[in-house]
């Protein structure tokens, strides 16, 4: 006797004995009941079919030669019935030729017993069939558990996917403006995550009527934790709450001036290491731009070298590299100064652009970015950033972007031509 899945005694296995000989049915039934099986009898294949339609047995012991429907025909009929559980079928036969045995196997029989039936052999064959059915029952139970687990995981995945879609919307909302006309200059921004959410962020914040702050940053890693960190950092460089912006200092009630970018990055480094318990670090390029003179003060902390494209189309890369933020408490950050002339533009971009790989593994690199910028020198504003994405897609071929892609583009308007 086996135990069911709850640990209690299982119901006895049901056996259907099919034979046109009443005496043979009684002999077989007597043996099987002694061994703990629940036995039902049928005198013909037709009668047995009716019983099976009502309730399929676990095992069948059927004579081969019967009037009307033979044992193999009855076996084929059972195999054609739809059922989740398997019926183990034993044919009783006086036939011993290989061709007859092959025919019975082709019709779906599992085992054979020659007549007259030996009780010990019958018991052994029934035990073998019961073991197979027990294994099938265990497998079905495990499959049901797997299906239930997969259904539960799918529900969790759907819920997580829905949350990530909303998280992506929230992260994109950190980029409150993708274009702003500043009069003497224009600023365009782009943010594309390689997954639902990412660790890149770009932004701008007003400093005064003639000054604007620009930044691009990239938090280490990918996914939710990196995205949460970008949200925290966005607050430290807020465009809407200047008193919370570490890049600004209040010089009079309601009036703010820019801190030197190197000092701002040093403050970010201190806050990151002292207030935030995280294994993450981030790179950043932070610029203070004087729109009246074109003077740019830039600090680069591990971020890719920003690109400057002059009005004649030539491209140069600026910056001194530097350490990422959040690695060393006493890290020092340098800043450089350069001047943009009318018609020049500055591109602060993430490494998702320069490290974009072609199908053969070749990275775009600074040289490839410069070539794209030269090719797109007549394209301006958001159209430039959109065209840049298309060029990156061409470079990557059919491969998906493996890293987030972000950029902020500052373009000084060209000098008006004399009338």
What does this structure look like?
With 419 residues, this protein is an alpha+beta fold. It folds into 2 domains: 14-143, 3-Layer(aba) Sandwich (Rossmann fold), CATH 3.40.50.2300; 174-412, PPM-type phosphatase domain (Phosphatase 2c, domain 1), CATH 3.60.40.10. 37% of the residues lie in helices and 24% in strands. The chain has 10 helices and 18 strands. The protein has a 6-stranded antiparallel sheet with strand order 6-7-18-17-14-15. Strands 2-1-3-4-5 form a 5-stranded parallel sheet, sandwiched between helices. A 5-stranded antiparallel sheet has the order 8-9-12-13-16. The radius of gyration is 39 Å and the shape is rod-shaped.
**Number of separate structural domains:** 2
Average of the residue pLDDT scores: 88
Strand element count:
18
Number of alpha- plus pi-helical segments: 10
CATH topology of the largest domain: Phosphatase 2c, domain 1
Content of β-strand: 15-25%
In terms of structural class, how would the helical and strand content be classed? Answer: alpha+beta
């Amino acid at each position: 006797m086996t135990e069911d899945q709850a640990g209690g005694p299982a119901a006895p296995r049901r056996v259907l004995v099919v034979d046109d000989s009443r005496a043979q049915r009684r002999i077989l039934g007597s043996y099987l009941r002694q061994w703990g099986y629940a036995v039902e009898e049928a005198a013909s294949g037709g009668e047995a079919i009716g019983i099976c339609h009502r309730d399929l047995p676990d095992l069948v012991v059927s004579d081969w030669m019967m009037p009307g429907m033979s044992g193999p025909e009855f076996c084929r009929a059972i195999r054609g019935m739809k059922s989740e559980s398997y019926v183990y079928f034993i044919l009783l036969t006086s036939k011993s030729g290989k061709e007859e045995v092959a025919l019975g196997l082709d019709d779906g029989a599992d085992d054979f017993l020659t007549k007259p039936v030996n009780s010990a052999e019958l018991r052994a064959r029934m035990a073998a069939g019961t073991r197979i059915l027990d294994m099938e029952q265990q497998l079905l139970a495990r499959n049901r558990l797997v299906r239930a687990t997969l259904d539960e995981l799918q529900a969790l995945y759907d819920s997580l996917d829905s949350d990530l879609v909303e998280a992506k919307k929230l992260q994109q909302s950190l980029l409150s403006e993708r274009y702003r006309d500043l009069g003497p200059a224009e600023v365009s921004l782009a943010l594309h995550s390689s997954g639902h959410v990412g660790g890149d962020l770009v932004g701008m914040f007003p400093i005064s009527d003639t000054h604007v702050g620009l930044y691009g940053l990239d938090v280490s890693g990918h996914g939710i934790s990196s995205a949460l960190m970008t949200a925290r950092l966005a607050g430290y460089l807020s465009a809407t709450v200047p008193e919370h912006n570490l890049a600004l200092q209040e010089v009079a009630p309601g009036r703010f001036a820019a801190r030197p970018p190197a000092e701002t990055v040093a403050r970010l480094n201190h806050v990151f290491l002292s207030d935030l318990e995280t294994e993450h670090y981030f790179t950043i390029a932070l610029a203070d731009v004087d729109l009246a003179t074109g003077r740019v003060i830039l600090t680069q902390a591990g971020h890719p070298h920003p690109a400057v494209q002059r009005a004649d189309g030539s491209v140069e890369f600026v910056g001194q590299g530097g350490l990422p933020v959040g690695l060393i408490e006493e890290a020092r950050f340098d800043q450089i100064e350069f001047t943009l002339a009318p018609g020049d533009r500055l591109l602060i971009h993430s490494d998702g652009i320069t490290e974009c790989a072609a199908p053969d593994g070749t990275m775009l690199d600074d040289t490839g970015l410069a070539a794209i910028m030269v090719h797109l020198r007549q394209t301006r504003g958001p159209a430039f950033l959109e065209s840049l994405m298309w060029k990156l897609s061409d470079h990557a071929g059919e491969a998906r972007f493996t890293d987030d892609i972000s950029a902020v583009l500052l373009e000084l308007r060209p000098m008006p031509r004399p009338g």
